[in-house]
Amino acid sequence: MRRAMAIACGLVLAACSDDGSSAGPRVRPGPPCPTALEQLSSQVFRPGCIDAGCHGSGDRAGGLDLETDALELELFGRESALCGGETRVIAGDAEGSLLVMKLRGTTDCGSKMPIGGILTGETVDCIAAWIDQLDPSSVCETCGGTACIDLQTDAQHCGTCGRACSSAASCIDGACACPGGLAACSSGCADLASDPDNCGACEAGCGASFCLEGECSADCGDLVECSGACVDIMTDPRNCGACGAGCGPGTSCVAGTCQCGTETVSFVSDVQPIFSASCASIGCHDGVAGPGRVGGAGGRGSDLDLTPGNAFASLLNATTNCGPVVVPGHPEGSLLIGKLTGSELCTGTQMPKGDPPLAEDLIKTIATWICQGAGDN
Predict the structure, then answer these.
(1) DSSP state, 212?
(2) By residue range, what is the domain housing residue 160?
(3) Is the peptide bond before 352 cis (omega within 30 degrees of 0)?
(4) What pTM was estimated for this model as a whole?
(5) Which residues of 153-178 are buried (b: 16+ CB within 10 A; e: fewer)?
(6) Pick from 24, 252, 298, 321: CA 20 to 30 A from residue 18's CA?
(7) How confident is the model at residue 131 (pLDDT cuts 50, 70, 90)?
(8) Opening angle at CA 137, ends 176 and 44, nearest 5
């Protein structure tokens, strides 16, 4: 961790202000190569990146958090959120690292860093030399690649390198987990009560029989057979009212009809905190220098402002070449849901950009709010 902290000096990868209106933080040069955490904190990290209101946990300019306890995951092999897929730090390749490009001012993405601060050429050179001598495998677990892997959350390396979860499953605390109480089986997420290939337990197949309440059966009794599974089409969200009639995001199956969640979702209390934590950081959808604004950190962009007090109006008024961002009552027709799930990107990448996808329950909260009419509540 001390090595990871040492390279963070001057690591301001997104602008706090590009208009020259403020001189910005003055970072005291100090020794050419700060190596102690105390030196880094007093000379560069705290005054130049966090106290300046850029890369603290509450600001996260460009999606970069330099207050986190997991700096290796934030920096090594991590793609920048705003600079065209450039990697923040590549162990063993300083000149290919966005960190060094930003400190030298050799990239076209945004301004030289730190804005308004002073970082000597000697210090930048020694940071570059330090990165060049790093062995990726000595920095963190990479599973044979260049990026740091969190084995507790990475769906492709869940618990150990190479153990991948199925497409519908997530990696939680180093184990594959499926939504809605489904079981994480080798064939994918399965309902052990009705899946004929995983009846009562994963890989416990019923052959030509049906799976009824977790046991193989000659028929489905009072239930309906859907592709070999015995289901209650009055409540099953994947077969609601009829086989194959799945309910969309934010809805559930009630009396054979897909309906919005019965518990009211508040925009102010439930939805806005999600945007504030994951979308409205400096340099992203902050209403000042969003990635789609001319002059913004990303160079092109979106006028979508997801900051408190502005997000509701921005979401309801925003439209794109791909369609409206939010269609009240229709989550599946809302570009916002497509971008969050990665199912309907149209252009660009899945959001939040540069960060892991939102947890399924958070997306469901947003989708339910839309389904319930996207009210200003």
Answers:
(1) E
(2) 150-188
(3) yes
(4) 0.62
(5) ebbebbeeeebebbeebbbeeeebbb
(6) 321
(7) confident
(8) 100
